[in-house]
Amino acid sequence: MKNTLFLLGLAMIIILGGCKKPGIVSCEIISPRNGAELPINRNITVMVDASDSKGTIAMVTVFFDNNPGISTTTDPFRVIIPSALLTLGKHTIKAVAVNNEGTQEESTITVNIISDESPDFVTFADGKIPPGWKTSTWEVDMTIGYDDNYSLKSKNHPASVVAGKTMNASSYVEFFTRGDNFDLYIDNEKAQAFSSVPADKENWTKWIYILDGGKHEFSWETTSDPSIYLDAISFAVSTLPEVTTNSTVTNITTTSATSGGKISDDVNSPVISRGVCWSTSQNPTINNSKTVDGSGTGSFTSNITGLTTNTLYYVRAYATNRVGTAYGEQVTFTTQSADLPTITTSNITNITSSSATGGGNVTNSGSGSVTARGVCWSTSQNPTINNSKTVDGSGTGSFTSNITGCSPNTTYYVRAYATNSVGTAYGNQVSFTTTSSSNTAKVRFQKKKAYDYVSEMSVDNASGGELASYYFGTAAGTSPYYDIPPGQHVPWYYYTYPGNSGWYHCLDNSTYNFQIGRKYSVVCDDDGSYLIFYVTDDGPGKSSEPGEQEKIVSPITKIPKKQASELTEKPRADVSN
After folding, report:
1. Strand partners of residue 164
2. % of the chain surpassing 70 pLDDT
């Protein structure tokens, strides 16, 4: 028993002695700094400080937004993000450090990618301190002098220099420095240096900062060897663009208008976006509705859409550069009201058992041109253009409408209508009652199959006067019944075959005797090879709906479809012969 306990204790000592407490992993992105502004067409070098208190960092992986990570295993940990991944605006860079035990830590920063077009700059070495700037020493025993080229120098020992400038508005400031062993500070905050500079500034260091309006201090401090000094400094200041809004808004409709503006100066920073913004509240910004009308300086035109009728709007032109967004003067306009046309309905005349004459008068087109007008009718009150209707031209003024396809001894309600871009307006309602059909025969037309050869059918009297007709186009269908005088009349069809188009007899013997008080159908059928025509007697008092035919009462006429030259019926023009 003692031996057993001894062995168990020894095992526990061995196990506990073999446990190793994991190290603490640290990870920090040291370059670029959080919030840095970086040029769009240059690679980004990411420096990561990563360590493990008890082990080794096996790998550091850097992610740019949601792109695949780029890894390195070599300390110092440095990764290049290619410029091809960069777009203007804010982006996230994340570094993940993993030790040899799989423990990881991460660091995340945000950077702003900006245009790399550098503004013009002036240099202290040009022979004078720029207007509004001054230099002074931070230490009494420091001497500031100028060499023969008027380059600013610090002499004898490490020292500091400060320059002050009052900004009238938000400004984009670029410094280019030449020399070693110094740091640049802006308002006592150490500035971010860029390794990439224009070709004409080789061996210089570029510094960038965006400042609000007001007083700011720019200082540089030598850091070590008194024999190494700052021998020159250049700077450029960019502010918001200068933009004006077109004084007049044109082409105002119920829902749209035209505006624009002019960018007269980009103030050392290219305009990357321009347009107009608008709102029903004063001083609109790009957070409201806006257009985007290109970039750069110069004049531009903007199409404002999606507006509400009869509404006051405020408009300002805008222009955006790397400093921010500037706005032009505010102008106003009011969209047109949404007015329908004004129209009256004419009294009904020439009433028969199946037709009548109506019309109307458009006295005002409203907020837009009248594109369609006519009358609509129904057996129910207040008809609309969804019921039966005519289309009788466009514009204002009086017009006449032919109302057809009515049933005998029936009351109809009629309204004139006019349509513009706002909608459809209706005139006053009038009514009429068709006459009885006791002294007439009734004829309708049926086209049983849809095809191109027959587009219209009609019935004429013996002297060639048209009594009734119906247009099918290429579709099949059935017309209403039409009242015609009884007697011997000629059924026709319009043949559309190229080279032989025209009116032709439906029947071999040309005419048929339509009797008073009876209903007939003139039928066109198609068996694939022939057009087939005949007349049916539908009897008295049958429904006018399709499918109510009675017996065929005329010889069946068959006309070959394949050859137009085989047509033998006399054309309509020869009916008097």
Report:
1. 217
2. 69
